[in-house]
Amino acid sequence: MKQPTDWTKITLYIAAGVTAIVLGASIGALLYSPGGSSRWAVSADSPQSPFGGPFELTDKNGERKNEKILLGRVSLVYFGFTHCPDYCPLELANLTAAKAQLKGSGLTPQIIFISVDPERDTPKVLKGYVDYFDPAIIALTGAPKEIAAVARGYRVAYRKAPVKGSDDYAVDHSTSVYAMGPDGRFLARFDAKTDPAVIAKTLLEKSGLGKTKSSTPSAASTDG
Ligand code: NI
Q1: One-letter-per-residue 3-state SS of 18-73
Q2: Where are the domains of the chain?
Q3: How close is the Cα of 78 to the center of ligand 1, in Å?
Q4: Ligand 1 centre and the CA of 148: distance in Å?
Q5: 201 CA distance to ligand 1 centroid (A)?
Q6: Among 18, 52, 81, 194, which residue has the fewest nearby CB atoms (within 10 Å)?
Q7: Which CATH superfamily is 3-210 part of?
């Protein structure tokens, strides 16, 4: 099996990846928070923040998709790349955990992963990666121009970065998660470390479903 090897590699690369994340955070801070002091805080209260917009991309099955996939569902949109050694796997695990915690709540968010590394992230590579977390994840890639356009819409910054001591490259990227409503408009933004329970709770509140459920979702239990 290929998966265990990949994860060992991921573990080895975590230390190097921290540098990339710090760089990415700096880029993100420049774009998101002029003050810069609370750059990774949850900012679920900026409803007029114009994240999103139209896009044309190719999904993991090779089908062309656009922003209409957001309609009728609550979506969690995240930008990353399959070679990411650090936050992307953690983030996808967090998002699938949040989705699991919402089971039975009447709200099933769709997770959308958009590659910022279209050179390596072909539809096939994307499928092999995201299906490991949850086969329901929608993964999108596209021509560099198309990726640049959607990233601009979500105010996501990314750039190629060489990996020290290797001819490999990483992609520094913003690690925010954007919750989009069934109307395709921005609902909330989470950072890479937002607890899945907080994501689940915020989505319930923002969608109006949270009012009937006063109990906090359990952080430990995701079965059911
Ligand atoms: Ni990443």
Answers
A1: HHHHHHHHHHHHHHHCCCCCCCCCCCCCCCCCCCCCCCEEEECCCCEEEHHHHCCC
A2: 3-210
A3: 9
A4: 16
A5: 24
A6: 18
A7: Glutaredoxin (3.40.30.10)
Q: What is the pLDDT of residues 69-81, one digit of tens each?
A: 999 999 999 999 9
Ligand 1 centre and the CA of 215: distance in Å? 32
Q: Which two tokens stand for residue 32?
A: 């998101």
At 134-188, the pLDDT tens digits run 999 999 999 999 999 999 999 999 999 998 888 889 999 999 999 999 999 999 9
Phi then psi for 170, rounded to 5 degrees?
A: -110, 175
User: 4: exposed, middle or buried (C-beta count within 10 Å: 0-12, 13-18, 19+)?
Assistant: exposed
88 alpha carbon – ligand 1 mean position (Å) = 4
The residue written with tokens 């995701």 in the block is 222
Whole-structure pTM value: 0.73
CA of 58 to the centre of ligand 1 (A): 20
Please state, in angstroms and rounded to a whole number, the distance separating the CA atoms of residues 166 and 93.
27
CA 209 to ligand 1 centroid distance, Å:
31
Euclidean distance between CA atoms 219 and 204, whole angstroms: 15
Ligand 1: distance of its center to the CA of 213 in Å?
33
How many whole angstroms from 86 Cα to the centroid of ligand 1?
Answer: 6
